[in-house]
Amino acid sequence: MVRKIERDQNRFRQIVRGKIKTDLRKYIAHGEMIGKTGGDLVSIPLPQIDLPEFRYGPKGSGGVGQGPGDVGTPIGRAGQGDQPGGAGDSPGQHILEVELSLEELAQILGEGLELPRIEPKGKANIVEEKDRYTGIRQAGPESLRHFKRTYKKALKRQIASNQYNPDEPIVIPVREDKLYRSWNPVYLPQANAVVLYLMDVSGSMTDEQKEIVRIEAFWIDTWLKSQYDGVTTRYVIHDAVAKEVDQHTFYHTRESGGTRISSAYKLAHKILEEDHPVSDWNIYVLHFSDGDNWGEDNRHCINLLRDQLLPKCNLFGYGQVESPYGSGEFYRELEEAFEEEPNLALSEIRNKEGIFDSIKEFLGRGR
Q1: Cα separation, 66 vs 57, whole angstroms
Q2: Which residues on adjacent β-strands are paired with residue 125?
Q3: Can you name the residues that pair with 230 across neighbouring β-strands?
Q4: Which of 51, 97, 163, 205 has the fewest Cβ atoms within 10 Å of its own Cβ atom?
Q5: pLDDT per residue as tens digits for the range 13-43
Q6: pLDDT tens profile 51-91
Q7: DSSP 9
Q8: What is the CA radius of gyration of the chain?
Q9: Strands, E, within 102-161: which ranges?
């Protein structure tokens, strides 16, 4: 019975995975899962799953419970929908919330976008020693006693010595029956990564553009955390000047000044130089802006990218979020300056529907 339940549960989870994978673009665009994240689990509403119900069969077929109704009409409780002001007689939309781990969500994202797995670069692999309880010993602390194995050993001993009474099935372990879990050191490679999010918060970036950045950053983080054992995330905002902030400030700050993108690139380079040397870290820098920049600053940004940031990064991604106030010139400047850079990805995000393609543009390189 237990195996059958587990088999049915696994089959249900496969159905859920398939449904999410099919509608992945919609889930990404709506961003509703971000608000349902708790710890390592994400709650996902699935309104398309139909619940089973009884329906009327052909008339005159005999049987119990014959009454008014056409073939195929759902059978509800007596009087349902008949009382004035009561429940309606139309079937409602069934909404089922299913919890998935972030690891499962990352797998679905990778399958849905056909993302290649990331190969950590350089000396970023650090060997970490962990203890795993993979063995059994006859001595140890009571907190590590293996109750199931101890019970089985005691039961076998009592049956073999004719001490077991099926009418009074009491099993009492003695000292020789007790077994304890033991650990062995396991050496695992650990790859560290740092993600720097840079965002323009000048007056031309509205709350709608910031929401697009928030949704995209959630999915990028989900994927990178499935590829690395340790991911550090840092946030930089800028208008004419740049500063490092926490996550909440990153998504809820709006300034009224002008835009000088080079200020963010200088601060990002300083953070990497001081805290995240390229020999020990896999580095991801993701910059989001509406493309407005002080005209003479574009050339400076290109030089900073070419000489300082791109040599350090696994990936540098620039996402241009369309804004009614932004010119979008910076994207074109980068296109002309960098024709084929393997670790530079450019993406234009016109609205929430464009997040899906933007994520694929950034992560589809497997870097």
Answers
A1: 10
A2: 191
A3: 192
A4: 51
A5: 777 777 777 878 887 887 656 655 555 666 6
A6: 566 666 666 555 555 556 666 666 655 444 445 545 555 55
A7: H
A8: 29
A9: 125-137
What are the tens digits of pLDDT across the range 287-344?
Answer: 999 988 887 899 999 999 999 999 999 999 999 998 877 677 899 999 999 988 999 9
Which amino acid is located at 168 in the chain? E
Are 314 and 343 contacting, i.e. CB atoms less than 8 angstroms apart?
yes
Q: What is the rounded distance in angstroms from the CA atom of residue 198 to the CA atom of residue 363?
A: 17
Give the separation between CA 339 and CA 95, rounded to whole angstroms: 47
Amino acid identity at 62: G
Report CA-CA distances (Å) from 333 to 297, 324, 327: 11, 19, 12
Distance CA 197, CA 226 (A): 18
| Cβ 355 vs Cβ 24: under 8 Å | no
Please answer whether residues 194 and 286 qualify as being in contact, where contact means their C-beta atoms are separated by less than 8 angstroms: no
DSSP bridge partners of 347: 319
Cα separation, 75 vs 355, in Å, equals 43
